[in-house]
Structures are given as structure tokens and as C-alpha cells.
């Protein structure tokens, strides 16, 4: 047998794992040969480290050759490592199979060729596929590693089912970051025959589905439409012999692959040379906490946290080493055993409960509909297996381990579940609290007295402004008289936003503010305060900060931080001599994208702004953008993704779904962002482009961009002053983003989080089609589209 290796990959490597130690290659058997019945000789240096518990674990593996970070893509003996590579043998058996023996001559791993081959050749192809074939015809594979993947799905490998042999290919997670043995999570084609793939836990629970194939993408993965076809292509094939999905990459443009993570997410990663690392640009499912049993028993999963799994109160980690290596599924165990029994005695104390807020109640609850709250609690106490209860109009009980608990997003209220703990878990904390209270009472009394005295002095000193000291949450409740005073009777007008004018003011401490008077607002007092309170809790560098408000009878005003450079439209369309250079424009576009991504993906409530346009983007002293004017915003719970509402926003930035009357999602903001991005690129109103001179004049600018992109004529899209210092790579990136944002089908538009990654250069996208809706806008605006038909 002869083994040959292709350039992108090392051949077969001995790979060592030793707890948290990195993998060590002992040899690169590149060019090594073995005849029938003879072992392959290990070549190269290396050492075997041992500790008190045992030796290294050795594996036969393949990894990339030209990537600096060692990344195994296939492991032969992942479930059965060997302890001594010096006395192990990799050889060819008499029936033509490649076999691996350990030091005791026990079979560790073998290929599964069923027909004898006189002359076998083993080759690692450019794709990373290791194949065994007759020397006379190496394209006739008798065995290939692509049919037995581990946790990596490489380009060109089929993922699906052979209907003739019944063989199904699937890839399986590692047990931990240092243990490649098969874990709990798999990705495979739906065994029920539907044209989709499923994520499964422990060969049982299905926790995510791609959705059916709809011709160009899976219904649940609309991001597929964004991938640049020249860099990444894919197809789904169904015939009488097989059903499979395959994707391919252009190796000259990108090195990418799919990985099933230890934590159950499938991630598409690309090698970014300047970062010297793999960068993920797609995760399925998107929410880490949507993965079944990802944190194990008696844990809480918190989305977007550095450490997303944590033990519940009264529990501590078990199998702590696995947690350290990225696998917390061992969960947590009780610190103190339950007393078990609802009645207390002289020697024992009954178990107790504490309330815990969760995003949703866990599955597998037992219901008791006819009991009260106290009866629900008592029913749980009287059953030794009951670990939690919840009462919301009816009683729900949980027995045994609690799993899949998810924390409410950004501190929202969520639902309440009562966790059972031993009484001692409460008594110790109660004693501590009592001691703290007693120890602090004297000092507290003195402190309160001092605060009262200081407060009285301040009131006497600034009586004119006393009405501005009432605080609601993190917002100041201002009186009308106070705001009238600090704005000099609303004499210095800054501009006009949605629902009213904006005035400049100065607080007593010298802080500049912008006061917006809301004209004709018909909201009730309670609703107005609820919305203001929600927006007031938002803290992001690219969102305007709401300092407070005034609500007196029919008069309602909002008080914001002051932005010295005003709104973006002044610099794009106004007569100000200062022209924004390309670098500033690009950073403004990126900052706006980050602010919208925060509203859509990281707030406790999903917030759709509904009126994204240059007038609603303010610039601070350093031209950092801040999204403002939330007068039309819609607030949705995290379990709600779309809403039916009356049409709102500004003509020219409205998504097609506003016109059609269908339910609105965050993708409506994405469309508006795309239309605004066209204006940031050109420095002109989209609606005014027909009045501008230069090449392409007379064509609706967004249509012109969509047509010029594939031709590579992006420099023609910029004016002479802007093109002189523009980064053409960034210009092309921004143009692609803008065109993808304004696609007719909202499912093909990227999310704002994806847009941030694209603008930062971490992800590339292909050339989008010219949306039909842009042509409609052009015709309605009486623009010529003669170039479109040429």
C-alpha cells in the first residue's frame, strides 16, 4: 500500500491529547509507504508525557497544513485512543483494509472494505478526503473518510443518506475541547424522509431543524441567500439512489468549514489570516440556550454571556473538569440533601422554596388544576421526587432533574418557578442578613441623618430647580416649569423630529441637553411612562441617551443628551462646507449598524425603530453616530418576532411589507438602513440622484449600484472628492450590504448583527440581484431606468 498526501493537508498525524495540553504531532508520515502485511513506520521526533494517572492519548488524524492553528478535521480512532504509539502499528491487512493495532495487538480501528484488493493506494485529496482505492483506478473509491466524518463537515463531502445501502452520514460533536470521543450532539438528514436536516441530542431529542429545502436555501436558514456564489456554492440532491446536501468553497478566496461544537451549535467558520484564527459567521441554532441539555441538570443558561452556564442557587458543579473543557452538560448537584417530607419535627425542618425567574417554564411538567397556590406548594413538599413547582392559574410540578432553564433576556421579568432546597440553605443566609442589619443599624441611622441635612441644604440652595430631582428608575422626571427655565422659554430651536420640535437647554451644572416637545401625542399617562421607562434603560454607545422626561397633563417632553454636530442629513445633503470623508462615513455606517443590532438582538425587548433615516442619526463631537427619535418604535417581547401595526416611517425608506400590510419584523429596519446606506455612500438623497451630473445620472441610485457591482465599476458611484481617499474594498462591501438590505423578500435580508460582521470585514457576501421593489420606487419617482434594460 502507498500513501500519498495533497498539499492543503498533512497526511495522517499522530495526535496527542493530555488534559488541557495542545495536540502534538509525533510524525508527518508524508510519503510513508507500507506493503501488504507490513506496518507503517513512524518517523520524526517527539516525546510522550505522563503524569501520575496515565499517559497521553494518541489519535490518528488529519489537519490543515497551511493554517497556523492546529485544526483536526478527521480522526480515525476518536473513541479508542492508544497509549503508546511506539509499539502500535498502522498497517494494511491481507483483505486490503487499513488497520490500527495498539501495543497488545488489539484492533483499534479499521476501514470497512468488504472486497479484497490486490494493490491498494491511500490518498489524501485536495479536499481533505482520505481514500482507499485500487492503484489502477484511484477515482474508484472503496473507502473514504468523507463517509465517516467526525465533528467537521468539509467542503465537497456529502451529508445525507444512501438509499441503496442505507448508510447515513452525520457528524458528531466532541465530548469536550480535549476529548474527541463522540459527544451528545449530531447533525443528520431527517430520518422521516423530509428534505431537511435535524440537530439531535443523544440520538433522541430533536432541538433544531433547518426547515425544508425550498430550491435555493433551507427555509430556516435564510442567511444562505447572502453567501457569495463565487466563494461558496451548494446544492441539495434527491433521487432514487440518495438524498444529500453538499457545499463547495473557492479555495483561492476562502478556507471555510462547518463544525459541530461541543456545545451543540453547528458553526460555519472561516480562516481569517490577519486574526490567525477561525472566525464564525453563522451558528445554527442562533441561540446557544436553544440547544437541548446544553448546561445539564439544575443549571441556568444565559444567552450572550461569557460563561453561559451556571449552577442554580443551592447547587455546585459536578465533573468540574468537563466544565473547564467546554462541556458543562454534567450539570450541577445539590449542596445539601433534601429533608423530604412536608411536615417539620423537633429534629428536622421542612424543605423550602425560592422563586426563580426564567424565560419559559421547563418541559415535562405535571399539572394539578384544582389546587390553590398553597396547595401547589404542599403537593410538591409531600412528594420526595418533586424538585420545583409553579403556579399561574394552575399548578405545575416537576420531578427529578430540572433541565433547559433559560434566564430572561436582559433582566426581563419572565416566568416564576419555585426551586426546592433544604431548609439549611435558607437559615444560614437569614442569620447572615440579621447580623448585617444589626451591625449596620447604628451607622445607618447616622448616615440617614447626614443625608437629610445635606438634602435640606441643597434644596435651600437650589430652590428653583427642586422639581427636577424626582427620579423614576434611571430617568429624571422634570417639571414643565423647570424645562421652560433651562431652555430659556424654548427659544433656541435645534430642529424638528417626529411629533415635535427640539430645543437646546442647559442644566444648572452646565450639562447641555436637547428637549423634544411631543405635539399631539395621544398616549395615556400610564402607556407613555411605560414606553419611556423601557427606552430609558437602553445603554449603548450608538444610541442616544434619554436623560428624563416631563409629563404634565397634555404636555409631554423628552430630554436627551445634546449632540453638538447635529443630525447626519445636514452633512450629507445640507450646504455645510465640511464634507464627510469616506473613513468617517464608513465608521458612521458601522456605528448605526451596531446600534440597530443592539436594539434587535440584545435588548430585553426586541425594539423595531420603524423610522431609520439620516435625520434620526445624531453625531457627537467626534462624529460618532447615535440613533435617535424613538417616537415610532415598536417594543416586542423576546417571544414575539413580528407585529401587525399601522404604517409608520418615512416615504423612501419604507420596506415593501409596510405597503402590503403584512406583519412587520426587525427586517423592516434593515430595509430602511439599506436605503440610508445608499445615501451615505453617494452623499445625495436617493430621490435626488436624477438631478446629479456624472456617469449614470438619471438612474435611481440604488438600481445603479445593484447594476454596477458585478461589473466592478464601484469607483464611478462616488463623486470626485470622495473617490480620491475612499477605500474601494470598503465601498464595495458597503454597496453589497445596501443591496442585500433592500431585497424584496425579508428572509433574504441579513440581520443587523450579520451586517456588522460584513462591514468589519469578518464575513464576505456575494453580488445580490436587483430587487424588483427598487424598480417600482424608481418608476414612482419618475426616474429613468433606461440603463436597466440595456
From TrEMBL:
InterPro entries in alphabetical order: Bulb-type_lectin_dom, Bulb-type_lectin_dom_sf, Kinase-like_dom_sf, Pan_app, Prot_kinase_dom, S_locus_glycoprot_dom, Ser/Thr_kinase_AS, SRK-like_kinase
Signal peptide positions on this chain: 1-29
Reactions performed catalytically: L-threonyl-[protein] + ATP = O-phospho-L-threonyl-[protein] + ADP + H(+); L-seryl-[protein] + ATP = O-phospho-L-seryl-[protein] + ADP + H(+)
Subcellular location per the Swiss-Prot or TrEMBL entry: Cell membrane
GO BP terms in the entry: recognition of pollen; response to other organism
Keyword line: ATP-binding, Cell membrane, Disulfide bond, EGF-like domain, Glycoprotein, Kinase, Lectin, Membrane, Nucleotide-binding, Phosphoprotein, Receptor, Serine/threonine-protein kinase, Signal, Transferase, Transmembrane, Transmembrane helix
Annotated membrane topology: Single-pass type I membrane protein
Residue ranges of the TM segments: 437-460
Main location: membrane
The enzyme's E.C. designation: 2.7.11.1
Domain (Bulb-type lectin) ranges: 25-145
One GO CC term, this protein: plasma membrane
Residues in coiled coil: none
Residue ranges of domain Protein kinase in the record: 488-773
Top enzyme class: transferase
Coiled coil among keywords: no
Xref: Pfam families: B_lectin, PAN_2, Pkinase, S_locus_glycop
Domain Apple residue range list: 340-422
Gene Ontology molecular functions: ATP binding; carbohydrate binding; protein serine kinase activity; protein serine/threonine kinase activity
4Fe-4S in keyword set: no
Similarity field: Belongs to the protein kinase superfamily. Ser/Thr protein kinase family.
Name recorded for this polypeptide: Receptor-like serine/threonine-protein kinase
Organism of provenance: Oryza punctata (Red rice)
Amino acid at each position: 500500500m502507498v500513501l500519498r498526501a495533497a498539499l492543503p493537508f498533512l497526511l495522517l498525524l499522530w495526535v496527542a491529547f493530555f488534559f488541557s495540553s495542545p495536540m502534538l504531532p509525533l510524525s508527518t508520515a508524508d510519503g510513508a509507504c507500507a506493503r501488504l502485511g507490513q506496518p507503517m513506520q513512524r518517523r520524526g521526533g517527539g516525546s510522550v508525557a505522563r503524569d501520575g494517572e496515565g499517559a497521553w492519548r494518541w489519535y490518528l488524524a488529519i489537519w490543515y497544513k497551511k493554517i497556523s492553528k492546529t485544526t483536526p478535521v478527521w480522526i480515525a480512532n476518536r473513541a479508542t485512543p492508544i497509549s503508546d504509539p511506539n509499539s502500535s502499528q498502522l498497517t494494511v491487512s491481507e483483505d486490503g483494509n487499513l488497520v490500527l493495532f495498539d501495543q497488545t495487538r488489539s484492533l483499534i480501528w479499521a476501514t470497512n472494505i468488504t472486497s479484497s484488493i490486490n494493490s491498494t493506494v491511500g490518498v489524501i485529496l485536495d479536499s481533505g478526503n482520505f481514500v482507499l482505492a485500487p492503484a489502477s483506478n484511484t477515482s474508484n473509491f472503496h473507502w473514504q473518510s468523507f463517509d465517516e466524518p467526525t465533528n467537521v463537515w468539509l467542503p465537497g463531502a456529502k451529508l445525507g443518506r444512501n438509499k441503496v445501502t442505507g448508510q447515513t452520514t452525520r457528524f458528531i460533536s466532541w465530548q469536550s475541547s480535549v476529548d474527541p470521543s463522540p459527544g451528545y450532539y449530531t447533525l443528520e438528514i431527517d430520518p422521516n424522509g423530509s428534505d431537511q436536516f435535524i440537530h439531535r441530542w443523544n440520538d433522541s431529542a430533536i432541538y433544531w431543524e433547518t426547515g425544508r429545502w425550498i430550491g435555493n436555501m433551507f427555509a430556516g436558514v435564510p442567511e444562505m441567500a447572502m453567501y457569495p456564489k463565487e466563494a461558496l456554492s451548494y446544492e441539495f440532491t434527491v433521487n432514487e439512489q440518495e438524498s444529500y446536501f453538499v457545499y463547495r468553497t473557492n479555495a483561492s478566496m476562502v478556507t471555510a468549514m462547518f463544525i459541530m461544537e461541543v456545545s451543540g451549535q453547528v458553526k460555519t467558520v472561516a480562516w481569517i489570516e490577519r486574526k490567525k484564527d477561525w472566525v464564525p459567521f453563522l451558528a445554527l441554532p442562533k441561540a446557544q440556550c436553544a440547544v437541548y441539555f446544553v448546561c445539564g441538570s439544575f443549571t441556568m443558561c444565559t444567552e450572550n454571556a461569557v460563561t453561559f452556564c451556571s449552577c442554580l442557587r443551592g447547587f455546585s458543579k459536578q465533573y468540574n473538569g468537563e466544565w473547564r473543557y467546554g462541556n458543562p452538560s454534567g450539570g450541577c448537584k445539590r449542596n445539601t440533601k433534601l429533608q423530604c417530607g412536608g411536615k417539620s419535627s423537633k429534629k428536622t425542618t421542612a424543605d423550602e422554596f425560592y422563586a426563580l425567574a426564567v424565560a419559559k417554564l421547563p418541559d415535562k411538567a405535571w399539572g394539578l388544576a384544582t389546587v390553590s397556590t398553597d396547595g401547589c406548594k404542599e403537593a410538591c413538599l409531600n412528594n420526595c421526587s418533586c424538585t420545583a413547582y409553579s403556579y399561574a392559574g394552575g399548578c405545575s410540578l416537576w420531578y427529578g432533574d430540572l433541565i433547559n432553564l433559560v434566564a430572561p433576556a436582559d433582566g426581563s421579568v419572565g416566568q416564576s418557578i419555585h426551586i426546592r432546597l433544604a431548609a439549611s440553605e435558607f437559615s444560614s443566609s437569614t442569620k447572615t442578613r440579621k447580623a448585617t442589619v444589626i451591625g449596620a443599624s447604628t451607622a445607618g441611622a447616622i448616615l440617614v441623618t447626614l443625608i437629610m441635612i445635606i438634602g435640606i441644604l441643597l434644596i435651600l440652595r437650589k430652590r428653583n430647580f427642586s422639581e427636577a430631582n424626582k427620579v423614576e428608575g434611571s430617568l429624571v422626571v422634570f417639571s414643565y416649569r423647570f424645562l421652560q427655565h433651562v431652555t430659556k422659554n424654548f427659544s433656541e430651536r435645534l430642529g424638528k423630529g417626529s411629533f415635535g420640535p427640539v430645543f437646546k437647554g442647559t442644566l444648572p451644572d452646565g450639562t447641555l441637553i436637547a428637549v423634544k416637545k411631543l405635539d399631539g401625542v395621544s398616549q395615556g399617562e400610564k402607556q407613555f411612562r411605560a414606553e419611556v421607562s423601557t427606552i430609558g434603560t437602553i445603554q449603548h454607545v450608538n444610541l442616544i441617551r434619554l436623560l428624563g422626561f416631563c409629563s404634565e397633563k397634555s404636555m409631554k417632553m423628552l430630554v436627551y443628551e445634546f449632540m453638538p454636530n447635529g443630525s447626519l442629513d445636514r452633512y450629507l445633503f445640507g450646504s455645510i462646507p465640511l464634507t464627510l470623508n469616506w473613513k468617517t462615513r464608513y465608521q458612521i455606517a458601522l456605528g448605526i449598524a451596531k446600534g440597530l443590532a443592539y436594539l434587535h438582538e440584545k435588548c430585553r425587548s426586541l425594539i423595531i425603530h420603524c423610522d431609520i433615516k439620516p435625520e434620526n442619526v445624531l453625531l457627537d463631537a467626534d462624529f460618532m453616530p447615535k440613533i435617535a427619535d424613538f417616537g415610532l418604535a415598536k417594543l416586542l417581547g423576546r417571544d414575539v418576532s413580528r407585529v401587525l401595526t399601522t404604517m409608520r416611517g418615512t416615504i423612501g425608506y419604507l420596506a415593501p411589507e409596510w405597503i402590503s400590510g403584512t406583519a412587520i419584523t426587525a427586517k423592516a429596519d434593515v430595509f430602511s438602513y439599506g436605503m440610508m446606506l445608499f445615501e451615505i455612500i453617494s452623499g445625495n438623497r436617493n430621490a435626488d440622484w436624477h438631478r446629479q451630473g456624472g456617469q449614470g445620472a438619471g438612474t435611481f441610485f440604488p438600481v445603479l449600484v445593484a447594476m454596477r457591482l458585478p461589473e466592478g465599476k464601484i469607483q464611478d458611484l462616488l463623486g470626485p472628492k470622495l473617490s480620491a481617499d475612499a477605500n474601494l474594498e470598503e465601498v464595495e462591501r458597503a454597496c453589497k450590504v445596501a443591496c442585500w438590505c433592500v431585497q424584496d423578500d425579508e428572509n433574504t435580508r441579513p440581520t443587523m448583527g450579520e451586517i456588522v460582521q460584513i462591514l468589519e470585514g469578518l464575513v464576505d457576501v456575494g453580488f445580490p440581484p436587483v430587487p424588483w421593489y427598487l424598480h417600482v420606487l424608481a418608476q414612482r419617482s419618475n426616474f429613468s431606468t433606461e440603463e436597466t434594460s440595456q
